[in-house]
Design a protein that fits this description.
This protein has helices at 3-11, 18-28, 31-37, 42-57, 72-75, 108-123, 136-145, 170-179, 194-206, 221-231, 249-256, 274-283, 287-294, 303-310, 314-326, and strands spanning 61-64, 83-88, 97-101, 127-130, 152-156, 181-184, 210-213, 235-238, 261-262, 330-333, 336-339. By secondary structure, the protein is of the alpha/beta class. The strands form 2 sheets. The protein has a 9-stranded mixed β-sheet, sandwiched between helices. Helix 6 (108-123) packs parallel to helix 7 (136-145), helix 9 (194-206) crosses helix 10 and helix 13 crosses helix 15 (314-326). The radius of gyration is 23 Å and the shape is elongated.
């Protein structure tokens, strides 16, 4: 019996997870002996063999925790997955990894912030890990893929690595397979249920050196991921949001209680970052333009409110906003303007 077959016979047995797997191997002294102890029937053996065949046909690889290619940080987590499947470039897992998570219902400003963060990390040879959900996860993955050179990203999914969800991200999925990798602890071809997303979040938290939390409700899956990261001793950073926005409750609470470090931008991680220096240069414009920029942040502000703040008419600031927008200093979102 092959080592892979033995491991899968154990792991694909109902009610056996990483903790039970480790217990069985320790009790019987080897993976083969532990697998033999289960006395699997032929239906179970055939099911596992079909999974291995399906993986082989799709170019999916199995990486055990005794394989040097297994992510180092994840290996350090108690009861980590003994075996993960990988679709794409396995070498991606050897890079330092930063995880970025947040709500599916992120604001445009929030997604832009996370995309820029991901781009900076990928440009500095980090692999950016997230869960491939819409919203913040998508922004993180796409930001990493926009990095010049060989920027890469890792999608940690709740189903099998060949199960594409959400369907809106099918094109993103194939980009990740080409430029990075998709990983999972679930069987090839597996359709996830709700509890599998919590298991997925555990891997997102465990695989990284640092975790950055964007906009997130207090009871969101992203907050669960952040709590896992805190439990694992990871460096957790949270992006503050406006206190009146429920999406700011999660990160703001972690900052307030000292469980996360406030993340104010790329400069917190990479000194002299090109994006920041370009923005500073662009913002050294006329006094009237600077007053508009100073009045903006990440929460959209309407033209009428801006006019009151800078003591000008709406018609006057409209032309100035057009110039600032063309220069890439401000953006129009949700009926107002934010800093770009």
């Amino acid at each position: 019996m092959s080592d892979l077959l033995s491991k899968l016979l154990i792991l694909r047995t109902p009610r056996i997870g990483p903790a039970r797997y480790n217990e069985l191997v320790a009790r019987f002294g080897s993976v083969d002996a532990a697998a033999d102890s289960l006395r699997s029937d032929m239906a179970h053996v055939d099911m596992v063999r079909r999974e291995i065949d399906a993986a082989y046909k799709q170019g999916i690889q199995y990486i055990s925790d005794d394989d040097p290619r297994y992510p180092d940080m994840l290996r350090c987590v108690k009861n980590h997955p003994p075996l993960i499947t990988v679709r794409g470039n396995v070498d991606t897992l050897s890079r330092p990894i930063v995880s970025m998570v947040g709500t599916r219902h992120a604001t445009a400003a929030g997604m832009d912030f996370m995309a820029n963060m991901a781009n900076a990390f990928a440009s500095n040879r980090y692999a950016v890990a997230s869960g491939m959900a819409i919203g913040t996860d998508t922004a993180a993955h796409r930001g990493a893929l926009r990095a010049s050179g060989d920027g890469v990203t890792i999608a940690v999914v709740a189903g099998g690595v060949d199960y594409i969800w959400p369907v809106e991200n099918e094109s993103l999925y194939w980009e990740i397979v080409q430029r990075g990798c998709v990983i999972s602890e679930m069987p090839v071809g597996f359709t996830p249920i709700a509890t599998n997303f919590v298991q997925r979040n555990r891997i997102v938290a465990g695989i990284c050196k640092q975790l950055i939390l964007g906009e997130a409700d207090l009871k969101s899956g992203s907050m669960t991921t952040a709590r896992f990261a805190i439990e694992y001793g990871r460096d957790v950073f949270a992006v503050p949001s406006h206190p009146s926005d429920p999406r700011g409750a999660g990160p703001n609470s972690l900052i307030k209680t000292g469980l996360a470090t406030l993340c104010s931008g790329v400069g917190d991680f990479f000194a002299g970052d090109d994006l920041q220096s370009k923005k500073i240069k662009n913002e050294k414009k006329s006094d009237s333009e600077n007053s508009l920029v100073d009045a903006l942040g990440t929460i959209p502000v309407s033209e009428s409110v801006l006019a009151e703040v800078v003591k000008k008419s709406v018609s006057e600031i409209k032309s100035e906003l057009v110039v600032l927008e063309l220069q890439g200093i401000v953006r129009k979102v949700d009926g107002g303007y934010v800093r770009a």
